[in-house]
Amino acid sequence: MKAIEVLRHEHVLVRRLLRCLGALTVEARILGSLDEEAATKLLSLFERFVDWSHQDKEELVLFPHLLARVDGEEAERLARVFDDHVQERRRLTAMYLHMDGACKGKPMSVDRFIANSLIYQRLQRRHVDAEETYVLHLAETILTPEDDRHMLHGFREIDRRLGNLLQLDEEIDDMCLRFDIEYVLNAAPQVPELIFS
Hints:
The chain is mainly alpha-helical. It is built from six helices and no strands. Helix 1 runs antiparallel to helix 2, helix 2 runs antiparallel to helix 5 (145-162) and helix 2 (36-67) crosses helix 6 (165-178). The longest helix is centred in the middle third of the chain and has 36 residues, at 107-142. The protein starts with a helix and ends in a 19-residue tail after the last helix.
């Protein structure tokens, strides 16, 4: 299914962004402050690409198609997977709230930014893994070619809101270059464990 291939490709991009966030988080811990330009660009990418584009495709297009074909426990399990998006958005909002102070080197803001970043990374990794191993596999099993066509149409509508997708890809590449993150297909995000004093 082409729609599922789109989501799998986007998961690769999400993993790349998570690796960048991991590197930014380590850098903030080492330097005691946050690089304002990198943090602003990276959080914007998470907001525009992960939240507004990728997760909207899942919530507004994929999820309704799946729910139309399952019920009972399967529907509840799917709902739990998609409920992760709420927690992820809360952590992204918390990073934004502490970003200004962290960029100014305020220790409490740096610590709170880092703590929310680590939780966000863990939530996103777990969520992408659940989608790859459960949701997308289920979709390939129960959705029809007609569902695929409808989903691709829905994806295009969501992408139109964002405008220039090539520019978005270039921004992701630039961020990866900034943090020396190589392109590795299906690479699991590397999130270093940080020791908090």
